[in-house]
Here is the input.
Amino acid sequence: MRATPTFAFHDLTGTEIVRITGTVRDPGEFKLLAEFVASGAYKTRQFAEYKQQQRKKTNG
Here is the structure.
């Protein structure tokens, strides 16, 4: 690991599927991170892009 904190998510076989390095600002952002992984959005975009899209929907 190069920085802390680092959040690593693994699939059911133990394979790492997502690694996010850096702080999470607040509980809302942590929830977005969980939704990003659980929804499978990590397969098609970066967390920063997902977060921006979700916030636009909320503030839209």
